[in-house]
Amino acid sequence: KQPIYTLAIESSCDDTSAAVFKNNKKLSNIIASQAVHEKYGGVVPELASRAHQQNIVPVVDQALSQAKVDRKDLSAIAYTKGPGLLGSLLVGSSFAKSLAMALDIPLIEVHHMQAHILAHFIDDENQKIPQFPFLALTISGGHTQIVKVNDFFDMQVIGETLDDAVGEAFDKCGKMMGLGYPAGPIIDKLAKQGNPERFTFSKPKVSGLDFSFSGLKTAVLYFLQKEKKANPNFVDENIKDICASFQKTVVDILMDKMKIAVKDTGITQIAIGGGVSANSGIRTALKQAEIGLGWQSYVPKFEYCLDNAAMIAIVGYYKFLQQEFADFGSTSKARLKL
Ligand code: KG4
Ligand code: ZN
């Protein structure tokens, strides 16, 4: 049987990425992050599209050369259809369509959040593969969802955020603390050296499996304003404890909902995905739940947590097996249901 060589393109937000897979194995996964957004404290969509245009050709060239795959040997091109920033998505989709057309090979469209979940199926020695059905907690800069995953393409959202995404809460609260962008990894690093019990932030009261993070954001804002009035150096002097306490609150919110989801579904296999799954607090909490609650947890390799094309390639591979190809007239979607 001929191997399937997939070239995958991911350009939904501010990372331009290309990966080459041989079947379900990664040959390369190149990620160009865009430093241009740092000074604005968030992603500037117009600048992101321009940077994607500059990056896309060199990133794809590098992915092919590192994989030692000639473009004429490619079986298909997979790309992110959505959700994401429309201008960013369009750069990836136009490129993917043109190349697939030039090479006369199938085009495969991939849902970004489905890819964060199916990243667990990348055949890599450092990864454990979950069994169906499992629960996925997808936590990123744009999404916070609990998904019941019955099969590769049979997924059901059973809970989601009513307002901000968890990564957004990290980034916005970090900005209030004067941290750089994205603040998630910075908070994580500082939290490791702080006392998580020092400050308490009230948790939102949302019933069922849905989340809310906007109230936490306001609570952090008022807390910082009040403390800074009493001591202008409060943040600098206590940053590690503030980060540790904030992170603990977020992790508790996520874990409380996962406990309800496990109770409701009877499923104890938990997989996490999305940028925030790089967080050490959530990783530790899941490890503790293995011992304390008898869960089996699945955490992707760090490389597959943040936005990357390897996760697009693995979905492309499974869609190729099902011969699920896209029409060249299909369009990118900023909003796209799972
Ligand atoms: O999945 P991703 O790369 O892009 C989106 O699809 O949104 O996720 C990016 C988000 C950002 O909000 C970033 O602050 C957050 O993931 N993040 C983290 C950590 N690493 C990345 N949040 C908390 N702790 C981390 N270690
Ligand atoms: Zn993402």
TrEMBL record:
Substrate binds at residues 138-142, 171, 184, 188, 279. Residues 27-313 form the Gcp-like domain. GO terms for molecular function: iron ion binding; tRNA N(6)-L-threonylcarbamoyladenine synthase activity. GO terms for cellular component: cytoplasm. It catalyses: L-threonylcarbamoyladenylate + adenosine(37) in tRNA = N(6)-L-threonylcarbamoyladenosine(37) in tRNA + AMP + H(+). Keywords: Acyltransferase, Cytoplasm, Iron, Metal-binding, Transferase, tRNA processing. Binds 1 Fe(2+) ion per subunit. It comes from the Bacteria. It is an enzyme of class 2 (transferase). Fe cation binds at residues 112, 116, 307. Its main location: cytoplasm. GO terms for biological process: tRNA threonylcarbamoyladenosine modification. Its EC number is 2.3.1.234. SUPFAM superfamilies: Actin-like ATPase domain. It is found in: Cytoplasm. Its cofactor is Fe(2+). Required for the formation of a threonylcarbamoyl group on adenosine at position 37 (t(6)A37) in tRNAs that read codons beginning with adenine. Is involved in the transfer of the threonylcarbamoyl moiety of threonylcarbamoyl-AMP (TC-AMP) to the N6 group of A37, together with TsaE and TsaB. TsaD likely plays a direct catalytic role in this reaction. This is tRNA N6-adenosine threonylcarbamoyltransferase. It comes from Mesohalobacter halotolerans. The lineage of its organism: Bacteria, Pseudomonadati, Bacteroidota, Flavobacteriia, Flavobacteriales.
